[in-house]
Amino acid sequence: MGKILIIEDEPNIAKAEGLILGEDHSVHFAEDGEEGLKKVKELKPDLVILDLMLPKKGGYDVCFNIRQDPELKDTKVVMVTAKNQPLDEDKGRFIGADDYLKKPFEPEELKQIVSQALRK
Fold it and tell me: What is the number of domains present in the chain?
């Protein structure tokens, strides 16, 4: 059972992701990038589900900050976004995302990506 932090500003999406992953994992939430980064430092989750389009601090910045912090750099990061251009995914992986999931997605896709990321 992993500890997962979902950083998502859309309440319905955050709730859905929490329901999908809550059976197998301890799930925590943040509504914007600043709160998310603060919670990553506090909780030290095994995995972060990170939306790209966030208020206060965007997903790319949050991911970059996680990767630059010696205590957090090994945290798994899965970016989940409606931005579906190949360039967006390339940028996410370049900054350090472990995986990238495009919205809308099926519950099984999310579970599978999370399982894969936690096993790496």
Answer: 1
